[in-house]
Amino acid sequence: MGVLTVYIVKRVLLVLPTLIGVITMIFFLVRILPGDPTHLLAGEQASPEIIERLKAEFGLDRPIYEQYILYLKSVLTLDFGTSYRTYTPVIVEIMSRFPNTVILALSAMLIAIFAGIALGIVSALRVGSVIDRAVIIFTSIYVSMPVFWLGLLLIYFFAVQLKILPAGGIGSPAHVILPSLALSHTPLSYIARITRESILETLSQEHVRLAIARGLPLRSILINHVIRNSLINVITVIGYFTGVLLGGAVVTETVFAWPGIGRLLIESIAARDYIMIQGIVIFIAMIFIFVNLIVDITYRIIDPRVRL
Amino acid sequence: MSTRIAYTLYSLARMIREDRYFAAGFITILVVIILSAAASIISPYDPYKIDLINKLRGPSPEHPMGTDQLGRDLFTRILYGGRYTLFLSASAVLLALVIGLLVGTLSGYYKGWLDLIVQRFVDILMSFPSIILAIALATMLGYGLETLVIAVAIAESPFLIRVVRAAVISIRDLPYIEAVRLMGYGDLYVILRHVIPNIMYVVIPQVTLQMGSAILIIAALGFLGIGIKPPTPEWGSMLNEARAYLMDYPHLLIFPGLMIFLSIVSFNIVGESLKMRLDPKARSLIGSRSRLVWGLYRGGRRGLDERNTSY
Amino acid sequence: MSAILAIESLSIAYQTEKGLLRAVDNVDLRIEDREIVCLVGESGSGKTTVANTILRILPPNAIILDGRVLFEGVDLLNMEEEDMSKIRGRKINIVPQNPSTALNPILNIETQFCEFLKHKKGIRERDRCREIAIDLLGRVGIADPERVLKLYPHQLSGGMKQRVLIAIAISTSPRLLVADEPTSMLDATIQSQILDLLLDINRREGLSMLLITHDLGVAMSACNRIYVMYAGEIVESGSTERVISKPLHPYTIALIDNAFLSFKSQGIKRAVSGEPPNLIDLPSGCRFSSRCPMAFDKCVKERPNLVQRGIDSVRCFLYHDASA
Fold this sequence. Notes:
The complex is a heterotrimer of chains A (308), B (311) and C (324). Chain A is mainly α and 308 residues long.
């Protein structure tokens, strides 16, 4: 078995305790709290029949450790229960919304990656110049924009004033533009900064100096030795934000009425659909953990220094 | 103690003089805090007083930021809103700092099984995007100002725990700490007197940066209707109310958003500047980089500037 | 014999916040065909600046105050950047100080070798490049070149990396090899192996070499001629044999004492006591006078000239009378 395989197996095994930890935390969070968990799960005004059904379904009449095992087993098989608002299994609801979230997250990441890396390269290669300063100031301002404000401003300018793009909803490729633009602002800024930093760091490395001393063409040095080396560091950031956007686009989805899982979470909170809330939160954590796992392994494969 | 305060003030004054970004951020924060604190002195209006005759007016001499959908003075509501947004964020970060210092120090100082447990727990908290964790906690703990603060504090705490722990580990075995231990002082004395003061250079910038992220979460929760609810004037929830009037009354959208943005950007700038100033690692990086220019190895102009004419 | 490289009255300064740092002052240096010349001096004496000037890879704050660097009769300092980059890697090549950081960590040896061959020898076919690389790696004493080509830098030892770098450096059959402290980052046993390899290459490939080192032991075992540099100036030069057996300048004498001392006491090196002068604010007299055990009045007041006698030269008032 190769070293890489060992690493992957180890890394995958490490995910399990974290995942169980997440589920455990949510399980106890719901049960430690004051009040009858069934009320919390079914809502304040649940009828007695619903309460009874719930108790039976969750085994709430049984001892707590049995409940816990049961809960763990069902959640690990993606059985999050059934919503009492829509009467459909939580996982079905999530899966009907998740593709929208994926579309939004991926298009936002696409914008962030292309624009961010381009900005980072331009500013690093002109370090100290007006362009470099402009990029630094732009990214620090842009990253501090609350996404809901940025989103509303985008709607106001492009949908209300210019009337060239839809304000929200879903349906055509044009609908994706504004929300992905808004959602991309944080990863874009971070990717630009990290790209800049790592290019500057790489430029100061001895092997670049040697490449110049050996008379390799500038273009070849920049592409093969500077940018290529720098982008390895950027991958981690790209991966991290892909995870965040897949799970955390709650605000953007709300601003643009985008029917993803973030929006579903907010709808469920408004409706006090606690079963749904629990399911979505655990699902988001699972996605986040999974994406981080993929990123770590990809990094291992791509960077020969850690690929022992 | 008073000399230490004097020295801190002196360093602060120097930073304001030398670093204009820091100065801009620091003064903005100060102004926003003072304006919010003095809201009742500055503004003659009641932030809750409904005046439907004057609703949705644009900016005017009487109402510098206009009025909202219920005729309340927007400027007044923004001043009072600062109290909520900033005070809640500050409380959350303070609580997160206490958690971070306590857990991070113990975990870094004692290592062993305690550290292992803490690390796994931090892993669990970090398995959620911060905003999701805050939403989940705020929802499940029930609504209220205290639970909001607790939820945001827990969402922010893993970053602080990590930073504190790493800093403690980096100094716990240094000879001078070891020397104090050998002199027979107890762990509590060593931690309080020598470890914690010596990790402040990483903690202070981190806390400042965390402030920016806490404001963002508090405002986002308000915007989503999970945090503070109307009619309480909180910047995020004010933006939420403004959404319905977006088409025709952009002033409702611009001013509260601007306040959130200004606060976040100021805390971020101050945090970054402090990091540069206090953290030797960050500083050395900047030092070596500022000398770098692409074209790095293409130097070697002929002659001094004066005699450059020959070439 | 005709000189491959002739450096004439080279002066270089760095612009710093505190003022002009005179790193290299009025340096003359010749390298004949197939000769190995050593440039010896402490760190900060300006020897690396000389090397960087030859390749024209000076940092942006460097200023060439004066001088010429004639390579095969052409002044490199007057050359267009485009033409210069054709000379780099083809006619002049470099062996770096620290082999561990000199290779791109994320590309395997083959990729880096082939990139160089593509740009410098126009070999685009991967198979042809691999053939040449295997041959060259064999010539620098790597036992299993096929395997090494597939490896990444971190999978090789320091000595192996330096062999690879030397193989790349000689792949274009350069006329001059500039080796800036090629062994200082290596273990003692590996040091002598690499040094032997460089000597071997000098003989076989018929190239000239500028070997820069702070270690007189290295210079002794490798060089035909030695230049000793102190605080930006050449203080003594001559054949290795003469410099070692009959050193003239008090600084050279101190260096040789130290070299033998360290040889006897197994690596416990004692630098010549005292500090070299501040290159921004130079003393008016001899630059070594503050540390010199033989200094007299004149040394503090006036600057000695470099006294030439055949291939030997020395910059010290002790020998001024003899030449006059």
